[in-house]
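User: Show me a protein chain along with its predicted structure.
Assistant: Here is one chain, sequence first, then structure tokens.
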Amino acid sequence: MSIPNHLELQLLAVLDDRPRHGYSLREELRRRSSGAFDPLPGTLYPLLRRLESGGLVASDWQAGPRRPRRVYRLTAAGGRELDQRLREWVEFVGAMTNVIGGG
């Protein structure tokens, strides 16, 4: 069993709700984690590009209040990947709980 990439899982999960631009993704991750997860732009945007090149997210430019911004959305393949990664995460957490708890 490998250690799941939690940031990819988090981004896919947040995009499952609705399309978002990068800053909105970052804000939602901070909100949902009560500030525990706050990826830097230098981490967030390369990861979004990698997810996009893998076909898990797609993006479009949309007009913003000051300038256009790229809005990311989960693709059908991304939804399937999210389901798979959630199953893997539950398995990982169960195994870690057993190890930590002495199980």
